[in-house]
Amino acid sequence: MGRIAVFGGTFDPIHRGHLAIAHAACKLADLEQIIWVPTYDPPYKQRSRPAPYYHRLFMVKQAIAPFYPAFTVSDIEARHPDPSYAVHTFLGLRSQYPHHQWSWLIGLDAFMSLPRWYGRQHFAEACQWLIVPRHLLAARVPAIPCAANTQSLDTTQQAMAACQAVAQQMAQQHLKIQWQILGIPPVAVSSSLVRSRCQSGQPIGNLVPKSTRHYIEVHRLYQDFAESGSS
Questions:
Q1: pLDDT confidence of 184, banded at 50, 70, 90?
Q2: CATH number of the domain at 3-188, out of 3.40.50.12780, 1.10.10.10, 3.40.50.11600, 3.40.50.620?
């Protein structure tokens, strides 16, 4: 019984950081496969709409094609009622891939919102949460117990404290979750940086796979840039 991880995100667009995270997760968590799931209709309000779904889906397909079957992509969120809630995605994928162990690959900032996710009681305990550390913004630190002491902690310790706080909040909801912080160095690239460079005419070849750069150029994506996130 192999272990499969869900890697969901807007992927607007996919970049080299996403690929580095996925490769590292495969090794660190002994994953058999990662299923990339581009978000069809983000359930939470964003400053602007992402690029059309079919563009984002195709860019992911192209970028991960060399790594099949370890990496695959699913369009399951396009086949579910809007908006794209994680509970629907997880239950749908689990029915397609029975008899597997499940993990969810997620950034620390998104993991910190897990206690508020819609339908979390139906799937949070059914998978192991693989957490990618990100720099904890000062604005988020007060949410961690004993926040007065967190400023002296290094990034790893802050991530641990944040995850423990999430686990405690979930326990208060009678949900016991399994989680693991992945020892992955911070990635100095984001989708918002790629979009910003596209808008200003700067090169992006060092930020995205070659296929992604070509697709963006051919379809003239992100020419009218508006900030919509950093994933």
A1: confident
A2: 3.40.50.620
